[in-house]
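Shape matters. Shown next:

___
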Amino acid sequence: MDDTPQKITTLVGREVYSNEGVFVGEVADLRLDLTERQAVTGLALTQLNDELFSDVVGGKRGVILPYRWVRSVGDVILVNDVTLHDVIEQLTRPNGEDEDSVVA
């Protein structure tokens, strides 16, 4: 395996799948924490799987999944199983109570 560091911009445009093989969306942008950790904290997804997100995002452009859900990065990005319950729970927290996942 090649351990050469990659630019984080190489994540943009990659398809995201659950570890069960379900298409989740496509990476459109990244959320970065530049203050303390200087790390990627979330993946902004568009081209969402309608079966997973249609009831949740409505007319919104996408969602941001917490980067801690990422299991592996290769030609595609694998994330822990994205269940509608997990996403709804993250998206419906009132005003910044938990900013790990938001509708964009």
Summary: The first strand starts at residue 15 and ends at 18. Residues 50-57 form the longest helix (8 residues). The domain at 8-91 is CATH 2.30.30.240 (SH3 type barrels.). The chain has one domain: 8-91.
